[in-house]
Amino acid sequence: MIAIxxxxxxxxxxxxxSAFRLETPELSPVRQALESGDNARAKxxxxxYFQDRTNVRYLFDYRQEPLQKIDMDxxxxxxxxxxxxxxxxxxxxxxxxxxxxxxIYVRPGRERAEVDLGKHYENLPHFxxxxxxxxxxxxxxxxxxxxxxxxxxxxxxxxxxxxxVLDKIExxxxxxxxxxxxxxxxxxxxxxxxxxxxxxxxxSVGWLTFSYISLLYTRxxxxxxxxxxxxxxxxxxxxxxxxxxxxxxxxxxxxxxMWERGLVPFMLxxxxxxxxxxxxxxxxxxxxxxxxxxxDYNEYGGYNEHSISYWSGAxxxxxxxxxxxxxxxxxxxxxxxDAMTRIENTFHILSEICPPGAYYPSLGDNGGAMxxxxxQLGVDACGSECCKELLNLRKGLYSTDPAxxxxxxxxxxxxxxxxxNSFSETGTYILMSAKTSCGNSGHNHMDLLSLFLTFHGxxxxxxxxxxxxxxxxxMGSPMRGxxxxxxxxxxxxxxERPVQPDEMYAxxxxxxxxxxPVNGFSSSEDGCFASAFHDAYTNCRHQRxxxxxxxxxxxxxxxxxRATRLxxxxxxRWNLFPDVTFSRPDxxxxxxxxxxxxxxxxxxxxxxxxxxxxxxxxxxxxxxxEKLSTIIDACFRVAPDAKPDVNTVSQDVCFLDxxxxxxxxxxxxxxxxxxxxxxxxxxxxxxxxxxxxxNTLC
Length: 698
Hints:
Layout: H1 13-18, H2 28-35, H3 39-52, H4 89-100, E1 104-106, E2 114-116, H5 139-144, H6 149-160, H7 163-179, E3 193-195, E4 200-201, H8 202-216, H9 220-223, H10 226-241, H11 255-271, H12 276-279, H13 282-296, H14 308-329, H15 337-352, H16 371-382, H17 385-394, E5 408-411, E6 416-420, E7 429-433, E8 451-455, E9 458-461, H18 466-472, H19 478-484, E10 492-493, E11 518-523, E12 527-534, E13 541-549, E14 553-561, E15 570-575, E16 581-583, E17 589-594, E18 597-603, E19 608-612, E20 631-636, E21 648-657, H20 667-676, H21 684-689, H22 694-697
Antiparallel strand pairs: 1-2, 3-4, 5-6, 6-7, 7-8, 8-9, 10-15, 11-12, 12-13, 13-14, 14-21, 15-20, 16-17, 17-18, 18-21, 19-20
């Protein structure tokens, strides 16, 4: 094992220089300067070496003169400012850079949360893993110490050429080197945190390392004083060599391990062949990445954590595809054929379940990832034809649906049932969570058979508050448990309760992973049928069946078997997006409206329908009640006069497109009668023929 320093500020010049293979011809000016005792010139020559070297390619390269504007929007995942982004990364970065000039830090993401660092940086974020866990949220500190604000200022400098920006970069770098220098407290090969007192987990240290490396591929370090540029190289070496501590670590199946023990070592080894300690990590890192891909992604391309955002944005965008791209441009070997096939398959799934809008549904942790950048990843990393075709359609270059994709997708091994009437931005789109063998649960939700409904390109039903869960709710909060659990999803609460109480999910990531297998699926030109079930309750079964008519709407049938074991009713729950308005045509229907699109929801039978807001989320989670989503609960049970041996009950709801229609007074009751005629949803052709015809009723 090599000697690994523990105190960042104590690293000597000699340690840095000795880390390089100075006998290589390209580094001879550094060696000669050292041999002559000219330490200052040696530093200058090392900085010059990184300015000039061409033997290694990075994710981007803006070192050349004159200054070039940095293109961030074609491949936003190459930049850390893309974390949680919700639009142009370039626009956000320039905005955040201007704020940083005023010592105001803007946390990346759609919320653009601003933090005043203080005139003299007296308000810097801090977090103690030992003292603050469970009391405050660690996200601000965790993200800040990744150093992506260096991108803000760098992009601003490349955009403007303003020397005041360069001066600010010098100031901020100096501040950060002083205030956030690491003293390693945990040197174990299985360490998750390097430092506890000033929390520095291994993952964030990896991100900071690449924030520093990214600077090397801009003009910034070569226009700063050479002493500061050398300090940057010193930190890259100090942080990077910490990952040699994991040479003897055992394999662990979670995404942090893939990044910390696999991708970071592989990329460091690929990017710094002149540093033997880094180069020696490359092979082992590649093997670990390859193993993770084969264990985290099944043969169909399904991701085991069942979180669309973490799957597409984090695991693929921020992690795996960076490694794939670096390996590709540097002609390195990372994934074998089997692993690469799984990644290709995963991009095919992400194309198949692609929604009409800009964001994927918020299924699982962290809200919805942006669609187009994910598709671009598929093109750049895998040469995916379906991603390319779909991206061209979404950009208006094609006018017809991609021939490589189907309107209907169903595979419980990947976790999704999806159906639609087109891939256009004004299409109707339905996604259901239906999964088996989900695997690791780190970012998985208790979303059994939960639905996301989009009509005419407008999101009506989904998980409107999912994003805040990941970033804003402190560990241990009751709201955290609620947002992970069934009550915040669009499913059925048998006997008015979730499988497990909310408190089970308040203090960690992920949930219980019961299977929800598909047990019926068929498709035709006019529509689609799908059904799935789960036995998570153990004392009853929930079966959900979907009948989608591509022109008219969607019928959902929820059946509870062994439905009379407790006296409580069952709740069919629907979470509306906050910008959806509603009215009540009668006691058994709700008319939903959003941006001119009108959807009539009609329930069969005589359920007790309650429309309300969950005000317990205010003010800690959502500051104002008006910003809360509306919830629709349809409570149903076996009829009081049912025979004693009847223990199965069903509840139907039909979502009908009534845009540009005028409801007749008697229309809702007629629709309810037509719904009752549809007995067997699986008999697709006949069921579609019996689907309520709003043209005659409205």
